[in-house]
Fold each of these.
Amino acid sequence: MESTVSSEATGRPAVQVWLREAITSGEFVPGQRLIEADLVSLLGVSRNVVRLALDALVADGLVERIPNRGARVRRVSTAEAVAITECRMALEGLIAAKAAQHATDAEIAELHAGVRRMREAVRAGELVRYSALIHELHQLIRQAARQPTAAALIERLQAQIVRHQFRLSLRPGRPQVSLAGLTAVVSAIAARDPEAAEMAARTHLSSVITALSEKGA
């Protein structure tokens, strides 16, 4: 990703977005120190802007401040990742049900196309691409749901465990399991069956929790 935002980003929101993307993409790894002076030099903004952006990410659970050591990317334990996914289960169920109620024909066609791309990636063994396609499919479902409050909460929770999810997608056999689960979610949405869509979403997240809890997650 670009290592500077100075040409366009002159305020906290843009720096916050840049830092969030750097963390969720793995450019900044868990435990890595985020030195304000280095970020000021890198991004071409004031120290106050960097500090405010870091404070916002602390509130989002992506960054933590250590007394006398400054800020660092927060490590999320497996136990915490499971707890976060349990919260997501309820929200994703709601989102899937709402998508079944509100999705347009065009949106359903996009969801089916997304599943096809995911299937192709799994067959080709393109697991990094598959992980990115999972994220895209979830975004499509949230857009179709027209429930922005739940969508915002999910995105905040998901950002904290993105590295756990990425590692899961690389585990042998896991992509096939998650593909089946997400295919079931899309099929229920396409059938415009809110109850089935909610159950499929909960079942899929339950399998994620099981995988996270297994040794080596």
Amino acid sequence: MVKIIIYTGLSLPFDEAKEILDSDDDVEVIYKRPIKRGDLGIDLKENPDIIAIIDGVFHQNSAVGHKEILGAINAGIKVFGASSMGALRASELDSLGMVGVGYCYNQYASGAIDSDDDVAVMLDSESLEALSVPLISMNYVFENAVSENILTQSEKDELSDIAKSTFYPKRNYADTLSKSGLSNDKKSELINFIRENEDIKKQDAKELLNCIKEYIRNENNL
């Protein structure tokens, strides 16, 4: 039996996560709320084989520490990270054994971004619903909109600058577009494009779960 602990709920809701990776006769999957400082020390007592960090808290509580993650790695646990806090910590600890997955991780690992603010969101602490939009998601959409000839490079740069200058709890598409010089037709076209595309943090979270499925299949011939 392979035991897996996964911290998510924000980038990827639990019900959607379970559609990809759930417990069966060979695997026990335990989904937990975004990780905070001290959680790993408690959860290591459950003797997991794999830990996956997707979401974590930044300001509501102290963030999970590097030493906590290294303690899990040194205990022989395979630790993965993606999407949000997981992507950030994986980029800092990949040379020491943490496995990073996805676009957000690669953005941090390459040095394209380096701030917690890029993945930070305001959330409802009870429902785990995101109440703002992370900067990395907005910039990803804006860059793709340029590729699809919906935005010009200068329009994309204007939107990115507005989003970057907005305090993360108040960052959202409606406010950013309202402060821009885009025409109403261009705003409508961009809004439709946003609605048609899944958030990159959710995409990364799904990729991570599929990566874990492949890992346990290869390691255990399941």
Amino acid sequence: MHVEEGKTREAAEMSILLDALPKKHPADPSGLQLAQLITSISNRKVPVSSFSRMWNLGSLQAKVTLGYFAYWLRSRFSDADEKERLRKEAHVAAALKLFGTMGYLRGAVMKVGQLLANLPEVVPEEFAEVLSALHFEAPPMHFAMVREVFLDEFGREPEEVFAFFEKKAFAAASLGQVHRARLHTGEEVAVKIQYPGIARTIKADLRNLRLLLQPLGLTSDGQNMLENLADLEQMLLMETDYEQEACFAREARRLFTAVDQVVVPQVYDDFCTKRVLTMEYLDGCHLDEFLAADPSQEDRDYFTTLMTIAVYRIYYRLHWFPADPHPGNFIFMKDGRLGLIDFGCSRTISDDEWRLMCDLELAVSKQDEPAIKRLLAQACLFENPEEIEPDRLETVRRGVDWQLEPNQAEGLFDFGDREFFRRGVECFMNLSRKRYTRGSPLYLWTNRLTIGGRAVIYRLKGRCDFRAIHRQESSVWFGREGNRHLTD
């Protein structure tokens, strides 16, 4: 009885959501219909049970499939121009369906949507445009839920905790939303508030994913993938601990001075808990708004340089990296500085992992083939190169070469080069297609950092002297330690 009631309730909720989607004409992704879609689900609590979340995804798959089938039928009797119009209309409708469901489910499902939005050369352009709103324009929760979180965390309402608190969120993403506020001492702050029950949604999504992937456990690669899901779940759950994120932000902030033109906002500890994070407000805009102003190539190169310095300084000085590089995490500030605002998904690198990565980087730079093969085999969890299939070794090698290619280039490296970006994405798609996924859990995050970060600067169409930046930031490690480790 409860199962049937659950199905009826979820179907009704999905029907309300789908009614908000465009029926005849593609809409501007930033226009009225998208705004109505966001409003239609902002008052609804995030579903947390495995069943309800799986039911929503199953319903989404059916709706998207029917939409494309309708496009196929209509296009059979159309000329070339009409087919193109219908194709774009089908893409927009499907993207809005994805946006609606992912925005409603939030959590790990929504992070998949953010990943798709970062791949404009892989998914249809209409998908990338609509889903890009998931980075910071996702449906916010109603203010009554915000008040509930504050009462649980502080025992007081937002208006009591702060001298001023803006009820309308100015940004919302997969795990929480952000409001502007002002402390009683006068500082302007950004307050990130976690959606209620979001940790439970992550556990539910990973439980569903394990069930779907269970048949793969019959192979060694599949078994390794299932084992790595534990690391994925741990990392995603770590993102729900805002006190941990505050610690990462404080460490990163200490790395940069005014000369660097990179700023990590100050954390205000007295106004932080596990579900509320209060940081200095940075005045600026996100990538879409920056690009809409048609910046010069000089400005694009300038911010590409700052992004590269920021990521590699954190990587080489702290031995961890921000593993969620998407447009919503960068602020293009009016005074020319670059703001880094999200450290929830920050992966710490163990000593063994660090040594392996640096040794491989050194081996590739020296073109030491025996060392490269030995280290790639080790990274894929084989005892020696003789155990690894030649095609697997070659496929993994192409991906590593692509990641390290900018290190070898003198002068400006063009990250806006379409062929370079597509080649990298193809490398990682081949690894997945051939199921060459066996490896340390770390590589889930290195791949996410590399593809995600390069997707951002690909959209920026930026260039930088990557080799010089890499040499400068890595000198702390390679200057003192690198050569010794390679010959150990």
Amino acid sequence: MENLLRPLIVVGGSVLLTLVIGWATDLLLRKADERHGEASLWGLLRRARVPYQLVLCTALLRASYDQARVLTEHRVGIGQTLTLVLIGSAAWLAVAIAAAVVEASYSRYANARAQRDPARVRRVRTQVTLIMRVVAAVVGVVAVAAMLLTFPAMRAAGASLLASAGILGIVAGVAAQSTLSNLFAGLQIAFGDMVRIGDTVVVDGEWGTVEEITLTFLTVRTWDERRITMPVSYFTSKPFENWSRGTPQMTGIVFWQLDHSAPVQAMRGRLRDILREIPEWDGRACDISVTDTTPNTMEVRALVTAKDADDIWTVRVRVREQMIDWLLREHPYALPRVNTADATLPPGVNGARPPGDGSPRRAVEPHRPDRG
């Protein structure tokens, strides 16, 4: 009877005690979260209850397993397994706690400065993301090393491993040169403020928003919802456009190819009327200029402004569309057309039309007296 009750008491007691402690801890965190409001540290720490309970249960079982006297012939193997699980769950708990602390700190910072300095908030977000990835990687490496050192054979080989660490480091550095360059490029991007999560960039002719930055690659979400993934070393070795660098305000350009008779002055007034109806226009500037001419058309350019890249795109397309619609209705002659009329000769040439005569006439070749 004792052989049956002892394992049940030890194992069942460990599990029951884990559930009770976990429930009490979760209750305390919930109460603290209700007092401190949204995105508090206590509410975020509740996400770590699974690794927390796993650490408790494994530690209790590891400490009391010898008293259970069950499967004694496999005592060493079961003890080793519990140790490995304890190390892994402790690493999981450490990463979860670090993530909760960092996220709570970032949330308070973002809520305080989101309106005043959104660029700074994006920069801190990028740095926090990469720091958490570095922390997770370091904790993972330490946990794996601790697991390996629990095996007697690995401890015995420790001296030889340390002796050959220099050679292995050189070999690994040469073999993983590309990976290491991306790793250092990721840290350079995070702390050099070159590009941040949420920035609007143009890379290889593709316009999009930086969606994710890791230690080795960066993802850009394009305007048509495609994802472009490239190594972070690209941004440290090649030029790219960052439309969110500094102030997000932007100036946009709209071009039209129009006939030489287009009413440019009336277009200036119409542009102001159109922009007043577009809420994305920030009111900083608007202008129309003739920037080029060809034998058949002239190039008319409009300058408009907006608070960021998304709004400037909306302003440009709406100005282009509404101006063409207005020209079609009010000044159809201003649109480019193929000129099939006969050329007008300079005044004084025989056969030239008099000024103001709009009737089509063909140019008449000057009369040559008959030499015969």
